[in-house]
């Protein structure tokens, strides 16, 4: 199964990624680029994007990039650093890049930038690569 078909299949059942209004710009094995806008329902009490938004965007990009090879993968460890706030109306570009992939473990980095090309967050994720194929 091709990378785009895998991600489309994942998105069909991923209500949360759909709610995030993710637009998939590019998908290849080990790489993913997404885009979305910060909506009013995504902000916290400080009127900035809730940290869970950048975390969730990063987690989705990680899942898409890792699974695009055709083997089913799940995250086993993640961390995030929020470097600057995102505000309502900000356009967020999410880029996931594979750092290393072995037989059963993959390591990825996700950067989220705003429309001014400023880094909003840095995310690192480790996935378990199963022997189950996407079909």
TrEMBL record:
SUPFAM superfamilies: Thioesterase/thiol ester dehydrase-isomerase
Pfam families linked to this entry: 4HBT
Keyword Hydrolase: yes
Keyword Iron appears in the UniProt entry: no
InterPro entries, per database record: Acyl-CoA_thioesterase_PaaI (IPR052723), HotDog_dom_sf (IPR029069), PAAI_dom (IPR003736), Thioestr_dom (IPR006683)
Molecular function terms from GO: acyl-CoA hydrolase activity
Thioesterase domain ranges (all copies): 46-118
Keywords in alphabetical order: Hydrolase
NCBIfam families: unchar_dom_1 (TIGR00369)
Protein name per the record: Hotdog fold thioesterase
The organism of origin for this protein: Brumimicrobium aurantiacum
């Amino acid at each position: 199964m091709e990378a785009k078909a895998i991600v489309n299949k994942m998105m069909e059942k991923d209500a949360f990624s759909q709610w995030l209004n993710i637009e998939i710009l590019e998908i290849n094995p080990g790489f993913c680029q997404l885009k979305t806008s910060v909506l009013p329902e995504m902000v916290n009490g400080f009127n900035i994007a809730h940290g869970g938004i950048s975390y969730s965007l990063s987690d989705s990009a990680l899942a898409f990039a890792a699974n695009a090879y055709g083997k089913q993968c799940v995250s086993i460890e993640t961390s995030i650093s929020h470097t600057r706030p995102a505000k309502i109306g900000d356009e967020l570009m999410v880029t996931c890049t594979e750092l290393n992939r072995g037989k059963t473990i993959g390591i990825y980095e996700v950067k989220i930038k705003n429309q001014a090309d400023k880094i909003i967050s840095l995310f690192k994720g480790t996935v378990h690569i199963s022997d189950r194929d996407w079909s």
